[in-house]
Amino acid sequence: MKAIDLLISTAIEEGEFPGAVGYVEHKGKIIYHEAFGYASAYPQKRSMQKDMIFDVASITKIFTSTIILRLIAEKKLSLETKVSTFFPSLESVSTNCITVYHLLTHTSGFPAWYPFYTVPEAEDFLAPILKVKSFPDPGEKIEYSDLNFILLGKIIEFIEEAQLNEVVKEKLVVPLQLNTTCYLPDASLKDRIVPTEVGNQFEKELVKVRNLHYHGWREELIWGEVHDGNSHYAFRGVSGHAGIFSTVIDVAKLAKSYLISLKHEDTFLSYELAKNSIQRHVMGENEGRGLGWVVDFNGINGFGHTGFTGTSLWVVPEKELIMVLFTNRVHQPNPVNINLTRRRFYESVLKVIS
Fold it and tell me: What is the pLDDT of residues 272-324, one digit of tens each?
């Protein structure tokens, strides 16, 4: 595994991120689990530890999609269920045909992003979306959109009549023994949590270029609170698209539940649902989309997901291989794209085990 050590150490030296935790599980055995660099570079330096807790950002979407699959298994909804069943304001001509399937595959036609915290509290948070005169027909194209999973999170709450964080605990955390996975982490965990950005500088610029306004920005180091602006400001830290805090081991356990289901060895998810979720339902420029999952990323077979804060997961079911790389790439003044390093990490692991 020296090649992997070198890859991550070099990325840190070149300023891609201050620190990282790498994890590899092969055929049920942990073959790699190492920490590198710093969990925080300021206000004081703290060394990264293997059990550090990260804001996993959009990997939250996989927790959400897994619950949706379980609700489908319980026959509480289906892939064909119209989203307007839960959101009557979406019964217009252009949005009435959007289904749960379209949300899971990012083919709803909804825009990629909108700062919902700029919407007055008295209004329906969907109001600015409903002002759009027309949308692409559902299924017409992939547009990766947080709104798809914000809505899925709300659908879960409607069906289960409980807050999303409570449902995640009941349906995922407890049965899979995800011992450190949660929304809204307790203050007692702060020393184990990896901080992210100082304020929401990146998101503040996105709001500015859209000529929108918000006055409640955090200016301090974001530490123990979700980094994502919509999750924090609009949804109080609990949303289907972002908000979960977890470790590499817990995220690997979630991925492993799919591998076990694909071997017909568990009833957590049926084989049919697990298999369907990792199929390539639609294809984009460099990656396909399953039901929540990214599939066949830049020619690498398998399924996984990434998170804006620097997290990533990739699974190769044929090799019973789970690869997790968590970094704190936004914990620096000028964050950079780390997709090449993610890919090299996967490729290095595949080379080692082959």
Answer: 999 999 999 998 877 899 999 999 887 889 999 999 999 999 999 999 999 99
- Where exactly are the structural domains of the chain? 2-60+179-353, 66-173
Closest CA to 68 of 11, 177, 151, 163: 151
Q: What is the pTM of this model?
A: 0.97
Neighbours of 142 (CB within 10 A): 18
Quick one: how far is CA 239 from the chain centroid?
11
Instruction: Tell me if 194 sits within 8 A of 328, measured CB to CB.
Output: yes
Q: Are strands 29-40 and 19-26 parallel, antiparallel or unpaired?
A: antiparallel
Give the max Cα distance, the chain. Answer: 57
Would you say 83 and 148 are in contact if contact means Cβ atoms under 8 Å apart? Answer: no
Residues 6 or more apart from 256 whose CB is under 8 A from it?
25, 28, 322
CA dist 252 and 261 (Å) reads: 14
Kindly report the backbone phi and psi dihedral angles of residue 107, in degrees, each rounded to the nearest multiple of 5, phi listed first.
Answer: -120, 25
Residue 347: CA count within 13 A, CB half-sphere:
11
Instruction: Count how many residues are written for the chain.
Output: 354
At the topology level of CATH, where does 2-60+179-353 sit? Beta-lactamase (3.40.710)
Task: Tell me which amino acid residue 88 is.
Answer: P
| Residue in the structure block whose two tokens are 């997901």 | 305
Please write the tens of the pLDDT for every residue from 85-115.
Answer: 999 988 876 788 999 999 999 999 999 999 9
Amino acid in the structure at residue 349: V
